[in-house]
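Morning - adenosine-5'-triphosphate inputs below, output right after.
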Amino acid sequence: MRRRAGGAAVTLARRPARYDVTSFREGLRSSLEVRDAVVRRGERRIVADLSVAPGEVVVLAGANGTGKTTLLHAVAGLLPLAEGEITLAGRPLDADGTWVPPERREIGLVPQHHVVFGHLSALENVAYGLRARGIHRREARAEATAWLDRLGVADVARSRGARLSGGQAQRVAIARALCPGPRAVLLDEPFAAIDAASRPLVRDLVRAVIAELGVPAILVTHDPGGDARSGDRVVELAGLDPEIYPEVP
Ligand SMILES: Nc1ncnc2c1ncn2[C@@H]1O[C@H](COP(=O)(O)OP(=O)(O)OP(=O)(O)O)[C@@H](O)[C@H]1O
């Protein structure tokens, strides 16, 4: 399957990829572009403009309520843009007259809340993306099992999502996002519930897989000293439209 990470072992200590000219040219073709985007949230307007190269992890920073989750949801296709455009690998996802539904975007999302499907087992959660693409059940489950193992949660493979602990659920959500070999990865506070001892390993694993896949990634975190270090650069979200909310800095 195209650009799938497969079951190959990932070296946890691997350094983030640095790009030569060839991969830079490649990057121009497969970056994630959010241009002059406006997303409405109730009476609010979230504004954003950013570009993420393939293999790059952009850390999205900003105070509570500035719209980081809202922006990720717009890129994932869970919320429509009111203005502007989003393209991935040069393909419009949400632009003039074009709106690609979430299931056809091939974007891996680790959500901030309700991270797994509660009624499905951990294994079914992770296999979900491959099954949705028509991959045979046995192959999807084998691949999902390998990903659960990579994330250190193989022992809860048969447990329902609703019965997982917070950290277990976050690991399963990470496995679910990465397993199908996404074209872009969106991580919303993905390590918040993971214990301190395993957090650096999980963080490095995610970083290594994104480099391996060579896809753009956005990481939302409020942990500038720890999690944000696994990013390549920090982008401060412009946030709420200053013309409407002048009190917001
Ligand atoms: N379902 C909703 N309906 C209306 N407004 C919403 C909804 N969800 C969020 N908002 C508002 O949209 C704004 C952006 O919320 P969002 O969750 O994207 O912020 P955030 O930057 O991710 O915050 P945090 O750092 O606290 O997670 C906030 O002002 C919030 O109150």
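Note: Confidence is low (pLDDT under 50) at residues 1-28, 242-249.

O.
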